[in-house]
Amino acid sequence: MKETAYQIEPHLLQLISSEQAFHYKVVPIAKEGKDLTLLTSEDAPDAIIGELEIVLDHKIILERIATEAFHRYLSSNYRKRERTENKVLHYTADFLEQVLINAKEIGSSDIHFEPYEEACRIRFRLDGKLTEQYKIPIEEYPVIINKIKIRANLDISEKRLPQDGRITITTETDEFDIRVSTLPTLHGEKIVLRILSKDASKFDLKDLGFTEKELHTYLESIKKPNGIILISGPTGSGKTTTLYATLKILNDKQTNILTIEDPIEYTLEGVNQVQLKESIGLDFSSALRTFLRQDPDVIMVGEIRDVKTANMAIRAALTGHLVLSTIHTNSAWGTISRLIDMGVPSFLIASTLNISIAQRLVRKLCPVCKEEHPIGASMLPSGFAIPEGLKTHFVAKGCNECYHTGYKGRKAIYEIIPVTGELAPHIKNNELQVDSFLEEKQIRTLKYNAVDLIKDGTTSIEEVYALLSD
After folding, report:
1. Which pLDDT belongs to residue 97?
2. What are the Cα distances from residue 4, in Å, to 9, 22, 39, 76, 410?
């Protein structure tokens, strides 16, 4: 079942708090007069009805469903509020499942297992930042690590070299992959688990953070039958999500879509996905060469890392294919400079590049606990003038609702440069200083989009400080 099927209407969610939902293990699904229908698991005792009627002042009707499905409802609609930091976690038969369920409940993307001299810790990455969740007794750590390595089909006797593996978790209501990476450290093996949602069908370009104008520009570029679309940004900036949301739009019965990825993070039905295997010679450029003999319409390349891959992508675009890829640069215009530095002829870039995009992920302030304060010049980077109309800003405080981080959720901000007939000559002539041209065409940079988020209280100065100082 898709994630959206588990969402409860906001007016119902407000009837009980997150603490009550987790304590009584119930989720409200309907209200009519004084009758309140609560969803619960199949093994819930009838005795809770009396207590709930007193606490909630409603006549309670319990509707039972499978335990796995109920937990999906609970974690999809309420964020667990209890703080588990520094709680000692002991090894049990279902240890890994406990940790994974807790990580998914609070929306974590990565789980870090880290050994030190006297203790071990587990940290979760939540909205892009690591928070400590548990301590593990040092004597139990080897058992835990071995269990994870066995599940990921790794060699438990090899402790000197890094290893990579994968675990597939299947429940009644969900299926997701865990990417496993081990690293030998001074006090033992550090393991990082990346939680990968297998289904990319839930991604929607409209929900990622594009402004209306930016979305229109981007959609126009992907409607072209050929050319290159490049998305730049650091690791973890949401580039892959943007690419998959794009593929979802392009994916239909008349279109042959091929991807080469490292690793395959999501699956999308109707798209032919290939896993990179450099150890046997299957790299981005060789896969692209083969793709051109597979009658493709759209090609997605995980990353342009070298001139060979860049040249193959350009060749694909010149022969009538639409190519989507990512590249590591700091800005949309920096992408063009990077390609030129790689040795790609500037006239080929000008004739094949449809659009260059830079993106970042920004944490959103928790709407419950954020506080408004007057703004001062000392809060902003040196030399950055306070924008007109910006008199106050919001700061993160932290509460139960946001798991004491001050932030809840993230959104992407974009810098989009379409390669138009006016811009192409600048690229052909290697004119890399085009700030005045971009300003004239009202191209919104990451910096100015970040200022807009401060103005409307979406995020804090602290969260986008690096973009303002760039």
Report:
1. 81
2. 11, 20, 17, 9, 18
What length does the chain have?
A: 470
Torsion from C-alpha of 375, 378, 379, 384, nearest 10 degrees: 100
457/452 Cα distance (integer angstroms)? 9
DSSP 8-state assignment for residue 86: T
User: In this structure, are residues 341 and 335 in contact, taking their beta carbons and an 8 Å threshold?
Assistant: no
448-470 per-position pLDDT tens digit: 899 999 998 999 999 999 888 87
Angle at 292 between CA 289 and CA 297, to 5 degrees: 140
Q: Which residues lie closer than 8 Å to 452 by C-beta, 6 or more apart?
A: none
Cα dist from 248 to 201, 293, 330, 376, whole Å: 7, 23, 26, 44
Which uninterrupted H or E stretch holds 399? none
| φ, ψ for residue 104, nearest 5 deg | -70, -35
Long-range CB pairs of 421-427 (<8 Å, 24+ gap) are: 424/350, 424/351, 425/350, 427/336, 427/346, 427/349, 427/350, 427/353
Q: Read off the DSSP letter of residue 24.
A: H
Is residue 206 exposed (0-12), middle (13-18) or buried (19+ Cβ within 10 Å)?
exposed
Q: Tell me the whole-structure pTM to 2 decimals.
A: 0.74
Residues 339 and 323: their CA atoms lie apart, in Å, by 15
Q: Do residues 412 and 208 touch, judged by C-beta distance below 8 A?
A: yes
User: What number of other Cβ atoms are within 10 A of residue 335's Cβ?
Assistant: 25
pLDDT in tens, 334-373: 899 999 999 999 999 999 999 999 999 999 998 888 999 9
Chain segment 265-313, per-residue pLDDT in tens: 888 889 999 999 888 989 999 999 999 999 999 999 999 999 999 999 9
Convert 352-378 to b/e letters by CB count within 10 Å (16 or more is b).
bbbbbbbbbbbbbbbeebbeeeebeee
Contact 294, 256 (CB under 8 A): yes
- Give the residue among 66, 29, 30, 25 at the shortest CA–CA distance from 173: 66
d(CA 334, CA 338): 6
